[in-house]
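Priority: medium. Attachment 1 of 2:
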């Protein structure tokens, strides 16, 4: 097939598509790092400087049977999936993911309303359009509550409002940050998990349940797959997710659904029509042999087979842990020590640096601000997690202070 990829992200899927014999054309997201055309991965990289012109260009490409002869237009995150769906509709190409489903996952308020109408256990919630609406909404929702962007990502701009005192403490920051719509929800106590699944031809296949770890700013610090759960709790989560995926009408896509396991059972936090980030797809392959990137490639080309979602190895536990050092931007990373020692730790599969010498220190406000990761596999969840954490403890980041340069008159 000739495939047009819109946007960036999940480049391993691109390599899987190429290996399956497809010809790839891509319009990358101009706000992201441009993809490298390694070994002729793409037949053409079609650049645009203005993101608003991508859809128009995609329609033009998909309408040209001589130069491109595109068979399918695809994307791997929600923003560009919506664009791909509109382009496919305009050019009479197969529509892979339902536009209504993607909109429900992007707009957390719409998802909550949809679940409420379907009788799926959820939380108290309200949409907040203006800052002056927040105080009254808090009295209706009650404390503690979570305030987050309606269509946020990467744990950005999430606030835990524990009580009246904490509300007044962050009131000025909230007031200055109200440049978009927010969702206010009652806070649910419990451990957090994500469920990795594939929905194809009307069937939902749950691949794994992942245990999630977060810091006080709700930035994810690590994951363990499969989650160490008692059998009855695992089955409870699977039953809940099967109902959730059916109610939402997931089909022809992977899903990454985040839940809290509360005292009264699972409660969905958010869901996505894409694989989970944070290297979860790698943990899945290490633990089960299931190649999620290959599955996504085959879903998008209509060639997925039952064998593709079967486990091919005896299950072990995999863990990823992230380093999140705090720092002022006036400090510059000079050098990194301990990498070789970290890689020699038992059970370590990978160490990856997310910051390089010469870059500024980061004040961690979201998932993009992390500095390094370690992946480990072991017979038990605790061993895998300990190895990943221990490996990162061996790495030392040395910074030097650089005073701000005075502006010349």
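Attachment 2 of 2:
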């Amino acid at each position: 097939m000739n495939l047009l990829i819109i946007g960036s992200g999940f480049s391993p899927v691109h390599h899987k598509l190429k290996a399956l014999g497809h010809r790839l054309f891509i319009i990358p997201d101009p706000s992201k790092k441009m993809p490298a055309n390694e070994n002729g991965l793409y037949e053409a990289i079609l650049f645009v400087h203005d993101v608003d012109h991508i859809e128009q260009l995609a329609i033009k490409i998909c309408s040209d049977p001589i130069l491109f002869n595109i068979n399918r237009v695809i994307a791997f995150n929600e923003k560009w999936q919506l664009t791909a769906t509109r382009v496919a509709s305009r050019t009479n190409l197969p529509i892979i993911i339902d536009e209504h489903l993607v909109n429900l996952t992007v707009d957390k308020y719409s998802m909550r309303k949809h679940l409420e109408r379907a009788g799926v256990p959820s939380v108290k919630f309200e949409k907040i359009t203006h800052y002056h609406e927040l105080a009254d909404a808090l009295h209706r929702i009650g404390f503690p509550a979570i305030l987050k962007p309606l269509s946020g990502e990467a744990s950005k701009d999430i606030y835990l409002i524990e009580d009246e005192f904490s509300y007044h403490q962050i009131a000025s920051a909230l007031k200055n940050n109200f440049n978009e719509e927010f969702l206010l929800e009652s806070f649910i106590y419990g451990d957090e998990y994500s469920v990795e699944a594939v929905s194809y031809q009307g069937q939902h296949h749950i691949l794994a349940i992942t245990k999630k770890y977060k810091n006080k700013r709700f930035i994810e610090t690590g994951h363990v797959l499969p989650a160490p759960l008692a059998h009855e709790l695992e089955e409870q989560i699977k039953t809940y997710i099967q109902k959730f995926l059916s109610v939402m009408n997931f089909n022809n896509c992977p899903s990454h659904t985040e839940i809290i396991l509360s005292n009264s059972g699972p409660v969905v936090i958010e869901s996505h029509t894409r694989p989970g980030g944070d290297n979860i797809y790698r943990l899945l392959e290490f633990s089960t042999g299931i190649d999620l990137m290959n599955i996504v490639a085959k879903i998008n080309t209509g060639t997925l087979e039952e064998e593709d979602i079967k486990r091919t190895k005896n299950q072990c536990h995999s863990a990823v842990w992230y380093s999140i050092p705090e720092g002022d931007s006036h400090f510059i990373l000079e050098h990194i020590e301990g990498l070789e020692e970290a890689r020699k730790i038992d059970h370590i599969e990978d160490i990856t640096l997310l910051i390089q010498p010469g870059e500024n220190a980061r004040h961690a406000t979201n998932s993009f601000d992390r500095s390094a990761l370690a992946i480990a596999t072991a017979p038990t969840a605790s061993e895998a997690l300990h190895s990943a954490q221990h490996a990162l403890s061996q790495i030392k980041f040395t910074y030097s202070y650089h005073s701000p340069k005075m502006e010349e008159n």
